[in-house]
Amino acid sequence: MNIALLIAGGSGNRMGQDIPKQFMHVDGAPIIIRTMQCFQQHPDISAIAVVCLKGWETVLQSYANQFMIDKLKWIFPGGDSGMESIHNGIYGLKEKGCDDEDLVLIHDGVRPLLSQEIISSNIAICKAYGYAITGIQCREAILESGDGFTSTTSIPRDTLIRTQTPQTFRLKNIINAHESACRKGIVNSVASCTLLAELNENIEMHIVPGSEKNIKITTVEDLEILKALMHTSKDEWLK
């Protein structure tokens, strides 16, 4: 199976709103539902699982029923960090009887403009090489700063990749990575790709081209950009 594992266990404190950002409505639907629809519509996705903020599981299932997300099979409890939420999700899939060879597309629950092409590429690259990390070549000039206010050092951008999600693994491989992290005392890596890098096991991660439209909603400004992207289309004269 190809399983979408959506991480929606955060409270969204940086958004500063009264409800978690994944449940905020944009044009009549919650952000988490719009994200789920990306996978619901893809013919090669067999099932959807969501790691959900504790206390919001019933709300999530009700929205899924309302918007006919029938690929939603499992809801797992969120953790105190992104890494812990992913841990809960992958072990939850194992406990539900998913196969070691199943592909798991780990995706932020607040990236609702994921394209069908990126999903397809993740599946194809993971099948071919074992790992697939969505990313974009860095275009900005990069400075290094210890305090966030001053800098004396630049970092060459030519070798830098800005990662996004999905990040795709065979279930056995991502579980093995978390078990190795536990043995090495790695407890709060910011993403699955950084976890693999921190393990220092020379795991070659293959890059899937991402998109600037595959935005992660973290701030009110991101929400404004999302709304703008949803209401625009490519001009006919553009190649």
From TrEMBL:
Enzyme class: transferase
Gene Ontology MF terms in the entry: cytidylyltransferase activity
Pfam family, one: IspD
UniProt entry keywords in alphabetical sequence: Nucleotidyltransferase, Transferase
SUPFAM superfamilies cross-referenced by the UniProt entry: Nucleotide-diphospho-sugar transferases
Keyword Transferase: yes
EC numbers: 2.7.7.-
One GO CC term on file: cytosol
Name recorded for this polypeptide: IspD/TarI family cytidylyltransferase
UniProt organism field: Phocaeicola vulgatus
